Amino acid sequence: MTAFSVEAEICVLPLREINGPENIRICILPTEQLAARFAARSILNIPIQKPDAIITFATGNTMMKPYAELARLSHVYDVRWSTIRMNHLDEYGGSCNGDSESFARYLTERVITPLGIVNTHLINGRAKDLKQEAARYESLLHPADLMILGIGPGGHIGFNEPGTLFDSRTHVVQLSEETVARDITRGQTKRTHAITQGVGNILEAKQIYLIAYGIEKGRDLNTALYESIDPRCPASALRLPGIGPKVTLFIDQEAAASLNF
Ligand code: F6R
Predict the structure, then answer these.
(1) For residue 49, pLDDT beyond 60
(2) Which of 176, 182, 239, 243 is the most exposed place for a label (fewest CB within 10 A)?
(3) Element (DSSP H or E) covering residue 4
(4) What distance in angstroms lies between residue 60's CA and the mean position of ligand 1's atoms?
(5) Distance of alpha carbon 172 from alpha carbon 179, whole angstroms
(6) In what order do the strands lie in the sheet with 193-196?
(7) Beta strand pairing status for 193-196 and 171-174?
(8) Which residues, in sequence order, are CB contacts of 129 under 8 Å at separation 6+?
(9) Phi, psi at residue 20, to the nearest 5°?
(10) Which pTM was predicted?
(11) Rounded to 5 degrees, what angle do the CA atoms 85, 210, 106 make?
(12) 60 CB less than 6 Å from ligand 1?
């Protein structure tokens, strides 16, 4: 099946497209489900157009629907992921592939296995020395063709919490109180540290897709898009000179309602 067929599917979704600040493309779909579907269709074009692309995958609740749709579409259109190189955006300290809450396991179950990706680089959150593990991981990285992001408390991207420098590389991070509280509210084990690719790693990607749904994420996005470009809101780095045109947001109508276009 060709990219044309995938594009044809895209056309039937009720998309509203806005040119955001610094030429960030904002794709608004009426519902979470449709935003996820549209994002998945866009991601699917990457392995079709560049079979050896490097893709960094975020995890989290936001990504469950797009990844499930990506698996379904890859099956329907017989899209091959075997020559894609997959990178891991972030991982909790103390977590590794065997743990039910680890991002490595999430990626294995929702991305690596369903898509049949073989060339994978995962962060070992269980490493004895997390700093050393961050340095090891950084040494494996090349700029991604596609960086898939969500957005979290305080406008974090990856686990780059408010205050993270825009030129940061893969590093160990102390999770913000807001992030720790959010995870506990979700019934997860209390985790205080993580390893994350830095804002610098994110910005050097050739394309950046950020997916978000709902009022709360819309508010964080509004700060990122329409308030000052400041490390206090890491996602505002997406508006730095030269970055905006590489960025596409896939959001639902609820998130869009929080934006002051
Ligand atoms: C996870 C990640 C985080 C999440 C963010 C939103 O790999 O990079 O930035 O994208 O915390 O998480 P959810 O989607 O679970 O609300």
Answers:
(1) yes
(2) 182
(3) helix 3-11
(4) 5
(5) 15
(6) 90-92, 193-196, 171-174
(7) antiparallel
(8) none
(9) -85, -175
(10) 0.95
(11) 55
(12) yes
